[in-house]
């Protein structure tokens, strides 16, 4: 049994050195962002001593930049701060919705986008919204930075692709093309403060006649990780999101899901509802892409 | 055991303490700084009884490490009234009989004050969403919401005291 320690370096190199030292010595270390998952887990399922590496003081993790054709969102910016950013909301209304859905006002004050992704809960609200926006994870390790598409980053329930000695610095999102927008919807039994029973994110790009020329569809809480649904994309592309295209997309999402039954919903209900959410999110994204949302 | 030395500000006063690495701000406030106005309901972020502000942001002190507050500014219920003069939020909760056992009340006061400082004229649904992370087992919520509605739109009066 080791003991607890806490460290909050200001420099990325220091943080990486600490991570590496612990990895090399086989001592447990865990990155702390907002702590809204970490502290709950520490108090319930996993109270083993470890070194807690608070990365919030590292400047790069709190950067939000809109330079060139990408947006960079630092991994430790709180959801409250992200939600209040008008430029981000304008570009990615769906992703911003998913950020706003996390927890209460109090949770929003600390919870981060990076934490939601790294925690890799099947029901993590921002994950499918990051999928449909083609986000890239910017990962730091002692040899520099490496990038990885977000859909390769989540590898299982509570598991991500970070190797020992690595941390998530932030997320890079391509700025949306013209006539492109997104939407995210989840179903919960209450109106606030609950975990998704199912979720769906959709992004669509339209031509000048309102025909869908590109799309992305991802679903959450209905498999071990968020999932891309290529068959739903196929149903939407080439259509003006008429009833039959939407119905096909809904069926594709239902078919792609492999949900569990628990107190929040049965397998059958989740399978159905993820289709309905896909349809509705697609309709909202379409209206937004047309400038009507 | 390596204790951590923390210098921070609590209710605009400089405060120093030693804490364990994994100790929460809630436990330090209550057990080390004798600021027992902040309550523990669930300790897992669900009830809001432990609400404080951290550099002006509403957060759960049960999900914040005490060590994280180094160099920051913490606001608790003890800093809300001005001596014997209650803050308008406290006064309105009293007038509307919006508390019974009172365990949730410090958290509500901090959360309502944070809401009105950001949005002095919230609608009923804005109030209900903002306060969704504060649970009350006694009042049935309506009196609390009515008290906040009674304060909404009185930004002049409110700002004077804030
Ligand atoms: C009351 C309550 C309600 C909630 N409601 C929701 C909800 O509606 N939807 C939802 O999706 N989630 C919800 N959550 C879960 C949680 O708030 C979110 O997942 C949040 O985004 C986690 O972010 P954090 O910064 O607090 O993560 P932390 O707790 O700091 O970290 C989470 C995990 O990721 C790791 N990690 C964090 N950042 C990095 C990084 N940059 N690099 C490497 N590893 C990292 C940590 O080591 C830890 O294992 C809720 C939690 C609570 C307590
Ligand atoms: S004690 Fe912190 S939210 Fe309940
Ligand atoms: S007054 Fe008792 S819990 Fe709210």
Question: Topology of this protein?
Answer:
The complex is a heterodimer of chains A (293) and B (162).
Chain A: E1 5-7, H1 12-25, E2 29-32, H2 38-43, E3 51-54, E4 64-65, E5 70-74, H3 79-83, H4 86-91, H5 93-101, H6 105-108, H7 113-119, H8 125-132, E6 136-141, E7 144-149, H9 150-153, E8 154-156, E9 159-160, E10 167-174, E11 180-187, E12 198-206, E13 212-220, E14 227-228, H10 230-236, H11 243-256, H12 267-289
Parallel strand pairs in A: 1-3, 2-3
Antiparallel strand pairs in A: 4-5, 5-10, 6-7, 6-10, 8-9, 11-12, 12-13, 13-14
Chain B: E1 4-10, E2 13-19, H1 25-31, E3 51-54, E4 57-60, E5 73-75, H2 88-95, H3 105-118, H4 124-130, H5 142-151, H6 155-161
Parallel strand pairs in B: 1-5
Antiparallel strand pairs in B: 1-2, 3-4, 3-5
The structure holds flavin-adenine dinucleotide and FE2/S2 (inorganic) cluster (2 copies).
Keywords:
heterodimer; A: 293 residues; alpha+beta; Uridine Diphospho-n-acetylenolpyruvylglucosamine Reductase, domain 2; Uridine Diphospho-n-acetylenolpyruvylglucosamine Reductase, domain 3; Enolase-like, domain 1; 3 domains; 5-stranded antiparallel β-sheet; 12 helices; 37% helix; 24% strand; B: alpha+beta; Ubiquitin-like (UB roll); 2 domains; 5-stranded mixed β-sheet; 6 helices; 33% helix; binds flavin-adenine dinucleotide; binds FE2/S2 (inorganic) cluster
